[in-house]
């Protein structure tokens, strides 16, 4: 005698048909976003590639930004990123330490959380207005690298706070309790146990912040970035803190919208360099995080 | 009976270390408060620069009139009506595209795939979020512009549709990542119970997860809206930047953010035009603050569950 076989009823068949359809539609949606974008980025690279060379990276722009390279913009971006990082990384990490290790569950902590969320949500152009009002005019710094970097620092603060908090929260409570039980104070516990166990996560956040800072345009437009400024190669630090500087993102904007008769490949090349730098830094952060997850002992 | 004398507290650390610790803890507390100070400071400084104009302005005209002639010789008019409509229309259209795609992608990543595919997609979406807005603007200007001109019956490629497409692609990563978190927060027991009743994944997603993760998904959409409203460089380059109330998808528009970015450089510090731009900034701050507050309340609703 044959064992009873399962025959699908019409209802089950319909259900499974729906399931296949839904899966196909959702997968199609993902592809419809990712594929055109991949095509566009490939197009940018193809258009910009002929111009990108070592001398393109290491020459000042010349002939009204129609020839030469992007050296001073590249250096300017590095300046902005490093100075913004020096300010916001310590503040951001300490803020996250406060939120995760010190703060109690009360209205004040909620207020801080809300402020961090809002800091991330305020439009970049409003950050620019703030930078202009607070640093350039009120503090009297003037349009300079310092003012632009401070604006960027405040704008990207939430990136560090969020990822540091996540890294700190991943350290098991038992680690802290063990440390407290041998008589260590709160800060000693944080310094000797919590921070060493979360340092890679914090580093990931800082790297993500680098990529975010490097790509921003609006906050630096009115606080310290200029269309054109050449720098000399004979000094180690070509920009002073009170100088205005060029930046890659701003340079892309300038060349696309303000410069007439620029060679057609030039904006593509700048876009590719900017995009490449940002994505490489980001990929490094993602790799580091993956490495950290696979190495985790607890 | 004699009580043994209590041993004096042992001094184990130097006074310097103790004071150092106190200083560090003070620093930590200050940094904790700093986020609140910064948000307050942003409001304050934007407000201060714009404030002198508040009383001089005919507000009903300023908000509803589409006449923006800030540099006119004889009749200066600051009407941001057209820009408000521009911002709303481009954000609305972007969300019409981004919400289904973003939530669809969130469901796909969270419920329909696993292992390497899921990890790869998550990385791709994270990289998508990292593309700077100026590069999006350049893509709008150099690629989408030509595509629209070639394949659609539009006289110019820099218009509402172009900017909305860019904004949609820019806000999708946020919607996906927050939406995925919301789906992850739904307890597995819900899925198992539905599975035991013979539900397919799609039925689980549609009938169980969507209602259960409603608030979190709403927060995801709201954060996407916030991103779209506040976006500056991409819309500056892709909208055509014409003060205009759009009547079709192919009309050029102008947004609140782009106006500030384009005109602030040309105004004299302290002039009425300059102050008006700060007041527009204040509007943007208020709008995004409200949107973020709503999103936060929605997320909190999820946590309470």
Can you tell me about this structure?
The complex is a heterodimer of chains A (298) and B (305). Chain A has 298 residues and is mostly helical. Chain A has two domains: 13-51; 54-295, MetI-like fold. Helices cover 72% and strands 1% of the residues of chain A. In chain A, helix 5 (124-138) crosses helix 6 (145-169). Chain A is globular and about 85 Å long. Chain B is mainly alpha-helical. Chain B is 73% helix and 1% strand. Chain B has twelve helices and two strands; from the N terminus they run H-H-E-E-H-H-H-H-H-H-H-H-H-H. Chain B has a two-stranded antiparallel sheet with strand order 1-2. In chain B, strand 1 (68-69) and strand 2 form a beta hairpin. Classes of the chains: A mainly alpha (298), B mainly alpha (305). At the A-B interface, helix 1, helix 3, helix 4, helix 5 and helix 6 of A face helix 1, helix 3, helix 4, helix 5 and helix 8 of B.
Which second-level CATH architecture of the largest domain in chain B applies? Orthogonal Bundle
Please tell me the overall pLDDT of chain A.
Answer: 88
- Looking at the chains present, what oligomeric state does this protein adopt? heterodimer
Task: Tell me how many strands of chain A there are.
Answer: 2
Major beta sheet of chain A, specifics? 2 strands, antiparallel
- What count of structural domains of chain A? 2
What is the CATH class name of the largest domain in chain A?
Mainly Alpha
Largest sheet descriptor of chain B: 2 strands, antiparallel
Question: Can you identify the CATH class of the largest domain in chain B?
Answer: Mainly Alpha
Roughly how much helix do the residues of chain A carry, as a percent range?
Answer: over 70%
First-last Cα distance of chain A: 55 Å
Structural class of chain B: mainly alpha
* Total beta-strand segments of chain B: 2
Quick summary of this structure?
The complex is a heterodimer of chains A (298) and B (305). With 298 residues, chain A is mostly helical.
């Amino acid at each position: 005698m044959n064992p009873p076989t399962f025959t699908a009823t019409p209802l089950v068949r319909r259900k499974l048909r729906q399931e296949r359809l839904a899966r196909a539609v959702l997968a199609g949606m993902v592809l419809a976003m990712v594929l055109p974008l991949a095509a566009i980025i490939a197009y940018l690279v193809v258009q910009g590639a002929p111009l990108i060379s070592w001398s393109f990276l290491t020459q000042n722009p010349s002939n009204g930004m129609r020839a030469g390279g992007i050296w001073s913009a590249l250096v300017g971006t590095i300046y902005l990123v490093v100075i913004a990082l020096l300010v916001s990384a310590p503040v951001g990490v300490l803020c996250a330490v406060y939120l995760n290790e010190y703060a109690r569950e009360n209205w004040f902590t909620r207020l801080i959380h809300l402020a961090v969320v809002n800091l991330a949500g305020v439009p970049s152009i409003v950050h620019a207005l703030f930078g202009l009002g607070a640093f350039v005019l009120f503090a009297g710094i003037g349009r300079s690298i310092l003012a632009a970097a401070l604006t960027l620092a405040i704008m990207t603060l939430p990136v560090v706070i969020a990822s540091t908090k996540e890294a700190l929260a991943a350290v098991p409570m038992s680690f802290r309790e063990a440390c407290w039980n041998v008589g260590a104070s709160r800060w000693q516990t944080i310094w000797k146990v919590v921070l060493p166990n979360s340092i890679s996560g914090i580093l990931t956040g800082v790297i993500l912040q680098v990529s975010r800072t490097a790509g921003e345009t609006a906050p630096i437009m009115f606080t310290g970035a200029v269309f054109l400024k050449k720098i000399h190669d004979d000094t180690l630090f070509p920009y002073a803190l009170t100088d205005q500087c060029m930046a890659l993102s701003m340079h892309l904007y300038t060349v696309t919208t303000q410069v007439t008769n620029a060679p057609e490949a030039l904006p593509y090349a700048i876009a590719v360099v900017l995009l490449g730098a940002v994505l490489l830094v980001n990929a490094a952060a993602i790799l580091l995080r993956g490495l950290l997850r696979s190495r985790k002992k607890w | 009976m004699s009580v043994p004398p209590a041993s004096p507290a042992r001094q184990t650390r130097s006074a310097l270390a103790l004071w150092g610790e106190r200083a560090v803890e003070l620093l930590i507390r200050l940094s904790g408060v700093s986020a609140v100070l910064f948000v307050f400071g942003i409001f304050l400084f934007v407000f201060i620069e714009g404030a002198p104009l508040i009383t001089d302005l005919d507000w009903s005209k300023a908000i509803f009139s589409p006449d923006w002639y800030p540099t006119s010789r004889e009749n200066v008019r600051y009407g941001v009506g057209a820009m408000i409509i521009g911002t709303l229309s481009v954000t609305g259209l972007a969300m019409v595209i981004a919400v289904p795609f973003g939530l669809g992608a969130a469901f796909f990543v969270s419920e329909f795939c696993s292992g390497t595919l899921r990890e790869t997609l998550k990385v791709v979406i994270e990289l998508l979020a990292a593309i700077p807005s100026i590069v999006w603007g350049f893509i709008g200007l150099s690629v989408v512009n030509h595509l629209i001109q070639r394949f659609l019956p539009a006289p110019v490629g820099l218009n509402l549709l172009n900017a909305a497409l860019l904004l949609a692609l820019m806000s999708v990563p946020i919607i996906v990542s927050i939406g995925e978190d919301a789906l992850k927060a739904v307890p597995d027991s819900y899925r198992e119970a539905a599975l035991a009743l013979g539900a397919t994944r799609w039925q689980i997603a549609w009938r169980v997860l969507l209602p259960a993760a409603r608030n979190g998904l709403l927060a995801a959409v709201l954060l996407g809206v916030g991103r779209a409203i506040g976006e500056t460089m991409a819309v500056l380059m892709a909208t055509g930047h014409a003060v205009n109330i759009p009547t079709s998808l192919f009309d050029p528009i102008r947004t609140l953010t782009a106006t500030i970015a384009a005109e602030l450089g040309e105004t004299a510090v302290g002039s009425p035009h300059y102050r008006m731009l700060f007041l527009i900034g204040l509007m943007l701050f208020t709008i995004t603050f409200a949107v973020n507050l709503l999103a936060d309340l929605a997320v909190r609703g999820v946590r309470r569950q």
